[in-house]
């Protein structure tokens, strides 16, 4: 009798793991394996590359040795090329794994891993909600039982999120920069994650929905399609935090590009004022300034006009308006970078972009928010591509945040 009872308990526990926890466990292990192979395997086997990686590595080491966490130095000379976040993270990594190649590159690899994970979650959420609207339509048509609901744990086994994670992780451009100890992958991780966090907040916060958006579901009722208006949207909170981290990684570009992307998208959709209210812009601005202003104020007070001229003048304004460090390239340079950097799938990008039919504004405005993900990605791609094509100084790493969004189009 006791043996039978124990067997029933074990069977019940096993079934619970398979049905409830197994998809989550599989997702964690799968993403860990993918990222491990792409980013962490033999991460420290090669010595420091080029002349740029040693500059970051030594500046972080000197920060750790001197205890000056405000002003970056290289060989006792100020290094104002980048804000401090990449140096801070490298210095922390040194304390964990030692002052070596692993410590230099760990922030880049972790940034790529986080971006892959959030991209996987976004695609899973997209699949779930797309199935939800399909189910609602089938309910109205009487094709399925109203009791059926697509669950998030089941879509974790859907092929789309896994394909997206694999394509992003093993993309040549992502793999290369995730294994180099410079600030580009950290910026991509912060900015890309911020944009995904914004869209997840936008898609999950449908408390104020116009009737026209769901006119093809007249019998479903708004109660089944909306979320409580007083619900705190933590995705928007994450967006503000990540934007602040992006600004602490590379300066103004960390907020200018997301504003251009999100602003143009919302204007096109016609939801600017509504979404800004949902985002609680004043509270978000407070979070942003509390996180970013202290360091910028301190480094300016300590170093004065030399910091302003070097960082804001030379490394930001002049890079956009003139050629810096002989990094000139023709106007079509980034066409080649995307073609090679997202190979072999880059040949499908024009078809994928055209398939969204982004010019059909009325049709997109009628879609539910989650179904607007392909359109949002088009704006993500286009704004970054145009921005850096216009910029005079050109480097392959500049459009790395664009490469990370390409998988959402294929």
UniProtKB/TrEMBL annotation:
InterPro entries: LipidA_mod_glycosyltrf_83, RgtA/B/C-like. It holds the Pfam family PMT_2. Keywords: Cell membrane, Glycosyltransferase, Membrane, Transferase, Transmembrane, Transmembrane helix. It is a multi-pass membrane protein. Residues 81-122 form the Glycosyltransferase RgtA/B/C/D-like domain. GO terms for cellular component: plasma membrane. GO terms for molecular function: pentosyltransferase activity. It is found in: Cell membrane. Signal peptide: none annotated. GO terms for biological process: lipopolysaccharide biosynthetic process; response to iron(III) ion. This is Glycosyltransferase RgtA/B/C/D-like domain-containing protein. It comes from Planktothrix pseudagardhii. The lineage of its organism: Bacteria, Bacillati, Cyanobacteriota, Cyanophyceae, Oscillatoriophycideae.
